[in-house]
Design a protein that fits this description.
The protein is α/β, with parallel strands linked by helices. It is built from ten helices and nine strands. The strands form two sheets. The protein has a seven-stranded mixed sheet with strand order 2-1-9-8-5-6-7, covered by helices on one side. A two-stranded antiparallel ribbon has the order 3-4. It starts with a strand and ends with a helix. About 20% of the residues have low confidence.
Length: 231
């Protein structure tokens, strides 16, 4: 299923969970689906999710909670649910073989991807070599300092909010809304999270990210339905 966490106000406080259930039948828990040419992994364009998983030649590691999305429709649903726009800063946790990463890049996002598995992190670096809008960190997300990595976003949002609030006497647009606020509202500068997260650390990830409403405006996660029902 997919679970979205979002807020409509500008910044601050924790994000509220909004459950949106989408069947995610298209995932691979381990079987790569057969062989595959190494070149298929390197070329993102024109390669199906199933082909990309097969080409990675990587057996999903259950102890890491790995599972690979192969349903292109589900991937596009996640991007749409997050409202990804060109220029958005995105945090992706556990990018795996890069199927979601590809679509986020096509949507014009700038991605910070955190992948614990060294083999997959290396293959992502190879696949997206020369891609200026993607930075891959080989790290355990629960030990990675997300606050420090997105400090620039948090500080920029705070500065913008202070400027808008301090502007006070801006001109009105005729509806009683300050023009400065009206301009700032559609893009408040916060980042977003879009991730097909590892099953075994779902709760810990949510506990880390949900209080960060001053940094992230929207979060879309994909995980097992039974996990979603317990939240």
């Amino acid at each position: 299923v997919m679970l979205a966490a979002s807020r409509t106000v500008r910044s601050g406080d924790a994000l509220e969970l909004v459950m949106e259930l989408f069947p995610t039948q298209g995932s691979s828990g381990g079987d790569s689906g057969g062989g595959g040419d190494d070149d298929a992994f390197k070329g993102a364009g024109g390669v199906s999710p199933q082909q990309r998983v097969a080409a990675a030649k990587h057996e999903a590691r259950r102890w890491l909670g790995q599972h690979f999305l192969i349903d292109h429709g589900v991937i596009l649903d996640a991007v749409q649910a997050a409202g990804v726009q060109p220029g958005d800063r995105i945090l992706e946790i556990g990018p795996g073989t890069g199927n979601l990463t590809v679509e986020l890049l096509r949507a014009g996002a700038s991605i910070t991807a955190v992948e614990k598995d060294r083999s997959l992190a290396d293959k992502l670096q190879e696949q997206f070599e020369g891609e200026g809008n993607l930075e891959v960190f080989e790290a355990d997300f629960l030990k990675w300092n997300v606050v420090e990595s997105f400090r620039d976003v948090t500080e920029a949002v705070a500065a913008t909010a202070a400027a808008v609030e301090g502007g006070g006497g801006g001109a009105s647009n005729g509806d009683g809304v300050d023009d400065a606020v009206a301009v700032a509202a559609p893009r408040d500068g916060r980042a977003k999270v879009v991730a097909n997260i590892p099953y075994n650390i779902t709760t810990d990830i949510l506990k880390t990210l949900l209080p960060m409403g001053d940094t992230f405006s929207n979060m879309v996660f994909m995980f097992q339905e039974e996990v979603a029902q317990r939240l």
